[in-house]
Amino acid sequence: MPLLQLEHVSKKFGQVVVADDINFELEEGEAVGIVGPNGAGKTSLFGIISGDVRLYGGQIHFVGQALERMHPSVRCRSGIGRTYQVPRPFENMTVFENTLVGSQQGAVLRGRKSHEAAFSALERTGLSSLANRAAGSLTLMQRKRLELARALATQPRLLLLDEIAGGLTDLEVTELTGIIRSINAEGVTILWIEHVVRALLSTVDRLLCLASGALVADGEPRAVLASEAVRRVYLGDRILNEAMDS
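Structure (tokenized):
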């Protein structure tokens, strides 16, 4: 049984189609990337899976359970965690307290178990030394790590990463991809939207490409990027060649 299965998933905002008959599956433990131009419907797809965006048509199953009528909080407790493009921590709370929100409200853990899950998430993302620092004082890289830690504290089986490498330096991207690879190695399934293509190429086993809400490619990452359909819709040959050669 696939961990996640999308069948004929569709969504419109008025006359704007953001998901056009999308079909794909994720197996337990996979690391899969999503690329596509701005406005392709990538973040909307994450919203559909996590429950932030209501499905227009089709079906989604997670571990065999239909998600269409399931509240976002229930989906989170069932094992779907996600990050957002722009980290928005509770700035007046500490790093640890931010992560504790994930373990208590997302995973519904209490007492010692919630504290252990929160601190484990900080350790896995390299933030344990900053546990008592106010989240509002963090750098962009540290905020990105905290965003990841908060999602991990919900104890996901499926982790949705939305452009988590955006705005980082080359060194920071390398450090972050190392963390994500280790999370995947622990058994967490990864679905990752990213414009930093080299980060995906060093991490994922499979790549999807979305354009105008439609799935235009699905396969081995370099083969997908080299395909004519993807080159036609995504960034142009020169940029793709630079990303694949780096």
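The radius of gyration is 18 Å. The CA atoms of residues 47 and 53 lie 5 Å apart.
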